[in-house]
Amino acid sequence: MNAVTELAEKVIAGDRRALARAITLIESARSDHREDADRLLERLAASGRQALRVGLSGTPGVGKSTFIESLGTRLTGQGLRVAVLAVDPSSTRSGGSILGDKTRMERLSRDPNAFIRPSPSQTTLGGVARRTREAVAVCEAAGFDVVLIETVGVGQSETMVAGMSDVFVLLLAPAGGDELQGVKRGIMEIADLILVNKADGELLPAAMRTCADYAGALRLLRKRPEDPPGFPKALAVSALSETGLDAAWEAITGLAEWRRDAGVWAARRAAQARAWFEDEVRHALLQELASDPATRAEMTRLGAAVEAGTAAPRAAARALLETRRRR
Ligand code: GDP
Question: Which pTM does this prediction carry?
Answer without folding.
Answer: 0.89
